[in-house]
Amino acid sequence: MQFTVSLPEWAIQEQARLPSHIPSLEERMRIVIRFSGLNIEYQTGGPFAAGVFERDSGRLIVIGVNRVIPSNVSSAHAEIVALSLAQQQILHNWDLGSDPLAAFQLVVNWRPCAMCYGATLWSGIRSLLVAGSDDACERITGFDEGPLHPEWQEELAKRGIEFQDGMLYKEAVEVFKIFRDRGGRVYNSRQARRPPP
Amino acid sequence: MQFTVSLPEWAIQEQARLPSHIPSLEERMRIVIRFSGLNIEYQTGGPFAAGVFERDSGRLIVIGVNRVIPSNVSSAHAEIVALSLAQQQILHNWDLGSDPLAAFQLVVNWRPCAMCYGATLWSGIRSLLVAGSDDACERITGFDEGPLHPEWQEELAKRGIEFQDGMLYKEAVEVFKIFRDRGGRVYNSRQARRPPP
Fold first, then answer.
1. What is the tens place of the pLDDT at every residue in B61-76?
2. Residue-number span of the structural domain to which A31 is assigned
3. Residue A192 belongs to some domain of the structure
4. Does this model's pTM top 0.90?
5. How far is CA A16 from the centre of its chain?
6. Chain B residue with the nearest C-alpha to that of A79
7. Are B147 and B84 in contact (CB under 8 A)?
8. Exposure class string for B57-82: b at 16+ Cβ within 10 A, else e
């Protein structure tokens, strides 16, 4: 009795073509946003991607994408996919903060939802970089992001996780608009508030 | 490229011995608490278990246990394991709320952590039953449960999820004390506040 979540074939191939290290933060985010767009283009999940990198060297560990519908797993958000692959398959450690020589960073094309916020806390990553954190994602896509604690940024800092926001905001939002314009399937707001038509 | 989380062998065998339906809520909780204790006794994960049931009939779908350390996956908390197994392996649906004829219930031996709270919101379950929700778990075990939104119970209700608390509180706490007395490994509070000694 087990469950499995896998990356789509295109994501494995795309990652194989990337350089081993991506020193620029902006370039890391550009790649993650590109994966979020490819995930809807190939119809392999929702418009979200997340990358795990060594923060200082930029070594690429893995890029995950949202796999909720193809996996039949409602928690297979991009962040959980990326963190789990990094932990289980690549670094063989449930705690990405246990190596004193390497701090790991999670790069996401939006601020984590309520679930992925918690997953970030427990992962051991030391740095979280997002493209945006306002209501644009919920407003444009219709996804419910859930309630975060009012002091969620301070709570990251308390646990030693640096936070940086607003990297390539417009590029991230552009993907959400493509998702909306194609009538992308919103898989988690059946019972919550819906965006205005 | 994929990650997998599995149940320990004892949990599969124990479930095979349970009746197909467990009508009593108290009995559902008693079973879940027993699994939380067995998980530390067999050293197959942290002191947490979660069961998915058909709310009205009591049909047992699956009981999951915490698998963080054995899986090398920091998000393999009992709730995520149970919900993912129910969705992917048993009901073949990422949305447990999509069947108009069956409402599903998640039964957990404590209130979900910040991550599992979000996972509960996205799972489609319509009912959440927990043994307790105060600071006893953090205080006794040393686990960090993360920050929940101050109106987390109202936010469940907004999304159509009933909430019931306090079922077999003392029995749940007893397992946490056994975990503490055996020096159980706390895998998520390295960087957060620790309980007083």
1. 999 999 999 999 999 9
2. 9-181
3. no
4. yes
5. 19
6. B75
7. no
8. ebbbbbbbbbbbbbbbbbbbbbbbbb
Instruction: HSE, CB side, 13 Å, CA atoms: give it for residue B137.
Output: 24
- Is B94 touching A (CB cutoff 8 A)? yes
Torsion angles phi and psi, residue B117, rounded to 5: -60, -50
Chain A partners within 8 Å of B144 (Cβ): 121-122, 159
Residue A99 pLDDT greater than 60, yes or no: yes
pLDDT of residue B197: 36
Tens digit of each residue's pLDDT (9 = 90 or more) over A107-155: 999 999 999 999 999 999 999 999 999 999 999 999 999 999 999 999 9
ipTM of the complex: 0.95
Let me know if residue B57 belongs to a domain: yes
CATH number for the domain spanning B92: value is 3.40.140.10
Q: Is residue B2 part of a domain?
A: no
B158 assigned to some structural domain: yes
Q: Who among B94, B115, B148 is closest to A74 (CB)?
A: B94
The total number of structural domains in chain A stands at 1
List Cα–Cα distances, B79 to A75, A120, A140, B112, in angstroms.
Answer: 10, 17, 30, 8
